[in-house]
């Protein structure tokens, strides 16, 4: 488990950028934590690290947003999912979630992953954001069965 203390939104984005390098910009990141903890802020750090210039907004009303990027000369897609409003696993299956995670070149970030625990792949990267002492501080805990070097 990797634990980081973030002291600002920028710190959170920097941690995201650091992780993207470690995981070679592929796989599924499951981001959990209470409302306003910084999940979307983390997603912004991911997008920035990938060279995505389009602003990342919370896809609460869209469920799934895609952002193309190029990594090591390959064209790929960053998939940002926000499952806050999801009522059943069926809704997530309906957007082709299984096909999405079957492609090892995809990068996926899921906010509110507890809605679909049973669908998450074995090598999920779990990221837990929590509030800390100071209003601007967050604890970021990263764990996975996949090795993060
Ligand atoms: N250290 C920090 N890391 C991340 N965000 C921070 C930090 N300190 C303050 N903030 C603020 O907290 C808010 C985090 O909002 P954000 O939308 O990223 O949360 P969220 O976890 O995605 O919430 P939701 O559950 O509503 O989707 C932002 O307004 C951000 O500026
Ligand atoms: Mg959010």
UniProtKB/TrEMBL annotation:
Gene3D superfamilies tied to this protein: P-loop containing nucleotide triphosphate hydrolases (3.40.50.300)
Superkingdom of origin: Bacteria
GO cellular component, one term: cytoplasm
Pfam families, alphabetized: TsaE
Keywords assigned: ATP-binding, Cytoplasm, Magnesium, Metal-binding, Nucleotide-binding, Transferase, tRNA processing
Localization per Swiss-Prot or TrEMBL: Cytoplasm
GO molecular function, a single term: transferase activity
GO biological process, one term: tRNA threonylcarbamoyladenosine modification
Family: Belongs to the TsaE family.
PANTHER family tied to this protein: TRNA THREONYLCARBAMOYLADENOSINE BIOSYNTHESIS PROTEIN TSAE (PTHR33540)
Name of the protein: tRNA threonylcarbamoyladenosine biosynthesis protein TsaE
Organism: Candidatus Doudnabacteria bacterium RIFCSPHIGHO2_01_FULL_50_11
């Amino acid at each position: 488990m990797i634990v980081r203390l973030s002291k600002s939104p920028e710190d959170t984005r920097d941690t995201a950028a650091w992780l993207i390098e470690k995981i070679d910009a592929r796989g599924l990141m499951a981001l959990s934590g209470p409302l306003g903890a910084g999940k979307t802020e983390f997603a912004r750090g991911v997008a920035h690290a990938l060279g995505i210039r389009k602003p990342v907004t919370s896809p609460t009303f869209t469920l799934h947003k895609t952002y193309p990027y190029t990594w090591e000369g390959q064209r790929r897609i960053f998939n940002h999912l926000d499952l806050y409003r999801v009522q059943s696993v069926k809704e997530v299956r309906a957007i082709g979630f299984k096909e999405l995670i079957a492609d090892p070149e995809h990068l996926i970030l899921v906010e509110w992953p507890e809605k679909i625990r049973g669908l998450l792949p074995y090598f999920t990267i779990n990221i837990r954001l929590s509030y800390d002492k100071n209003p601007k501080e967050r604890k970021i805990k990263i764990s996975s069965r996949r090795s993060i070097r």
